[in-house]
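Per your request, structure below.
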């Protein structure tokens, strides 16, 4: 008699979100609220949760979210990446760094108001409980930056009382981090 193999349990409490007009939006419900309270995914505004494109892909890959188009058809990860790259040309590099930081246990949020890609909270710290520790800029290893651009990034971090973290992505999608600080001799 053959043994029955148990199927791995599928997560049933997925968030259903719509990708429309360069945004990923989900209704406020038990699933979206629980995920936000637990891991700080999304931003609640007027009864809806808004997810950054990198958050949405991360949740899609972790099977915590279904992303639908305007016609209520599920979007798979490859199609989502193509659409996200149309919106953000540097999307994949940003995503690789976001995913790596989240997998390491950090909460990563957008930092547009600081003129940076991401703000990163130390492990165990949630937004609202304390300030972010780092401003994070993802870059590909082959990209070129001037000293002026580097200095501007460092000034943003310094003026917001955060540390500058550069996440360099190589061709194998591995990330190396450099922490940059002001030093007074």
């Amino acid at each position: 008699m053959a043994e029955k193999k148990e199927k791995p349990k599928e997560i049933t409490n997925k968030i259903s979100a719509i990708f429309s007009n360069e945004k990923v939006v989900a209704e406020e419900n038990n699933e979206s609220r629980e995920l936000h309270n637990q891991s700080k995914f999304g931003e609640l505004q007027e009864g809806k949760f808004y997810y950054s494109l990198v958050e949405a892909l991360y949740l899609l890959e972790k099977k915590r979210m279904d992303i639908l188009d305007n016609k209520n058809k599920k979007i798979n990860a490859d199609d989502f990446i193509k659409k996200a790259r149309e919106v953000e040309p540097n999307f994949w590099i940003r995503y690789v760094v976001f995913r790596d930081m989240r997998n390491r246990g950090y909460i990563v949020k957008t930092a547009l108001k600081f003129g940076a890609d991401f703000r990163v909270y130390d492990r165990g710290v949630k937004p609202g409980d304390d300030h972010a520790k780092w401003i994070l800029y993802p870059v590909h290893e082959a990209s070129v930056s001037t000293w002026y651009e580097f200095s501007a990034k460092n000034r943003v971090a310094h003026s917001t009382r955060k540390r500058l973290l550069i996440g360099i992505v190589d061709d194998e999608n591995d990330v190396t981090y450099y922490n940059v600080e002001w030093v007074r001799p």
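The chain has a mean pLDDT of 90.

Regards,
D.
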